Amino acid sequence: MRAEELVPGFTPENELERRVVQDPELLEGLAWGKPRKAHPEGSIGAHVADLLERLDASGVQGDERAWLRFITLVHDSFKNKVQEWRPRTGENHHAMRARRFAERYTDDETLLTAIELHDRPYGIWRKMKRTGRLDRRRLDELMSRLDEPERFMKFVELDGSTEGKNPEPIRWFRDQLREWREAA
């Protein structure tokens, strides 16, 4: 299958997108998935299509658009490679698998870090809700790795804007980011 079939409405906009959507590993990941709680749209390709549509509606242009589009194409496309019998951390987390894939196409560390960490704010928030305590060390580590926190936040907001996603973790992370900037 072609990316244009897996991601309804998608047309590559630059050479990097043209190259990455030719990769069979990415195509396999885009085809994977079925409707579930946080992703009622089903396949990863359908999720990507929804995000790209939202990005189009936002009016973002230029380098920022290209940056957000690349993350959108890759960020969840390796959930199919996670080994369910192992802990979903480190190299077995879908985001780290996506980063490793993206490293074959770019050396933009800000972009690679955003792919790797895109679910980290939600994970920290979820742990806080479960335990009643903020894992300050983990939050500080996340913040220290963000070279462009505002750009990262734009992707977190985009990814969290889809149907089935709880907006509370995004509001929480936006507040954390503001407090972190004010303290710096």
Task: Briefly summarize what is shown.
The protein has helices at 3-6, 15-20, 24-31, 44-58, 62-74, 94-102, 109-117, 120-131, 136-145, 149-159, 168-183.
Helix and strand content put the structural class at: mainly alpha
Radius of gyration: 16 Å
Query: Do you know the CATH topology?
Result: Hypothetical protein af1432
Got a strand count?
0
Tell me the number of structural domains.
1
Overall pLDDT confidence:
91
Element order: H for helix, E for strand: HHHHHHHHHHH
CATH architecture call: Orthogonal Bundle
Number of helices: 11
CATH top-level class: Mainly Alpha
Multimeric status of the protein: single chain
The description of the largest β-sheet is: none
Q: Indicate the overall shape.
A: globular
What share of the residues lie within helices? 55-70%
Which blocks of ≥5 consecutive residues have pLDDT under 50?
none
Instruction: Report how far apart the termini are.
Output: 48 Å
Q: Report the β-strand fraction as a percent range.
A: under 5%
Fold and architecture overview:
This protein has 184 residues and is mainly alpha-helical. The protein has a single domain (3-183), classed as Hypothetical protein af1432. Helix content is 61%, strand content 0%. It contains eleven helices and no strands. The chain has helices spanning 3-6, 15-20, 24-31, 44-58, 62-74, 94-102, 109-117, 120-131, 136-145, 149-159, 168-183. The mean pLDDT is 91.
